[in-house]
Amino acid sequence: MVKDIVIFGAGQIGRMALTEYGARVAFFIDNNKEIQGKRINDIEIKCIEEILEEKEDYQVIIASKSQDLMERQLLDLGILNYKIYMEKKKYYFAMEELVFNPYLDNELRDVTESEWNENMKRDFVRETVNFRVEQMQGKEPIFDHVEIETINRCNGNCDFCPVSRHSDNREYKLMTKELFEDIINQLADINYAGKLALFSNNEPFLDEDILNKHKYAREKLPNAKMHLFTNGTLLKLEWFVEIMNYLDELVIDNYQQELKLIKPCEEIVRYCEKHPELKKRVTIVLRKPHEILSSRGGDAPNRKELISYGEDRCILPYKQLIIRPDGKVSLCCNDPLGKNTLGDLTKNSIINVWNNDRFKTVRNALLKGRKNWKHCEFCDAFNLG
User: Where does residue 232 fall: left (phi above 0), alpha (psi -120 to 50 degrees), or beta otherwise?
Assistant: First the structure.
């Protein structure tokens, strides 16, 4: 087979693209000099300049969160034969691979806190976030990502999580049926078609009514992109089969330090092997409960060496609506303890909250840098929404 594909981006999304293009991939290119010369599945990572003389021989697949800036980089170099891997994809894990191990060839896993901080300083997605915020400011876009936390509890014990079973100090809350249906009905009134998740900083299957909630949401919001993340420990096979009637994507974070499948995931793998049509919509991600990850605004229990990102912006208040079980709206998905309340859906409509002065104040502050909002300065989460 002719090797006519070059993947631009050697991170997690690049590895997803590799599962799709396989034997056609000649090599990776990446802007990170620290990983140039290394290999992923025996495929070399090169610098972008190495493609210039033979640019007509390859199609470049941009596979990164920083796709906007990488596209501009290709155009500036006269490379016109490219595609954006994640463009128009509605999945977090756009791959056929049912069980995904993100630790293979991944520079941001199994690192010390100091190494994490050094990696974040070089993360090109920061530049993408800053660029996009500048584009969005003043245009008042409607949210395209909604998380509804129906119960504020998790049964996990992850070192990095502020709301794990041994760290959570939140007052117990369970969303009422009336409030949940009112929120969904309001989204239906505006024909909402963005991302919708019936979880946030919690384990969704602790809510005994979570299946019925998904059924109601799917009936009212047929065009929404419904996804769910779960640790899978409570996921009975019959629940899995039912919930896949409503979801566009299910991601199961299989937390096991030696990266072995837990029993519910073993059962789901066997079921999906017999029903391969589910593989595009189900991903089991091997995860370690004891590792260094984002500081989550300084709330991660195992993060001590926090550094300031005061000059960086954040895009999440322009895109996310994060709703807690009592109807209060949080700053973003990285405000797990609900330290910032931007509105209350038991008192005001979704649209009124989204356009209120509190949200506008946050956006104006973060346009000038994270140092202008107390909970954000030491947050090293650079999500794109």
Answer: left
User: Is pLDDT above 90 for 136?
Assistant: no
Residue 189 in tokens: 């009134």
Q: Answer whether residue 123 shows pLDDT above 80.
A: no
Distance from C-alpha of 242 to C-alpha of 215, rounded to nearest angstrom: 9
For residues 110-125, one letter each, b for 16 or more C-beta atoms within 10 angstroms of the residue's C-beta and e for the rest, the string is: ebeeeebbeebeebbb
The C-alpha atoms of residue 260 and residue 330 are separated, in whole angstroms, by: 34
Instruction: Look at the block and give the residue holding tokens 């300083």.
Output: 121
Least-confidence region, from 3-12, 49-58, 121-130: 121-130
User: What's 172's DSSP letter?
Assistant: P
44 token code pair: 């070399």
Residue 68 · residue 18 · CB < 8 Å: no
Q: What is the arithmetic mean of pLDDT over 274-302?
A: 93
The contacts of residue 189 (CB under 8 Å, 6+ apart) are none
Residue 108's nearest CA partner among 49, 51, 65 is 65
In DSSP notation, 289-352 reads SSS----TTTT-TT-------TT----GGGTEEEE-TTSEEES-TT-TT---EEEETTTS-HHH
CA distance 92 to 106: 17
Instruction: Tell me the one-letter amino acid at 135.
Output: Q
The pLDDT mean for the chain works out to: 91
Structure tokens, 196: 């919708």
- Helix axes of 357-367 and 125-136: crossing angle, nearest 10 degrees: 130
pLDDT confidence tier of residue 108, bands split at 50, 70 and 90: very low
Signed CA dihedral, 93, 97, 98, 100: sign only: negative
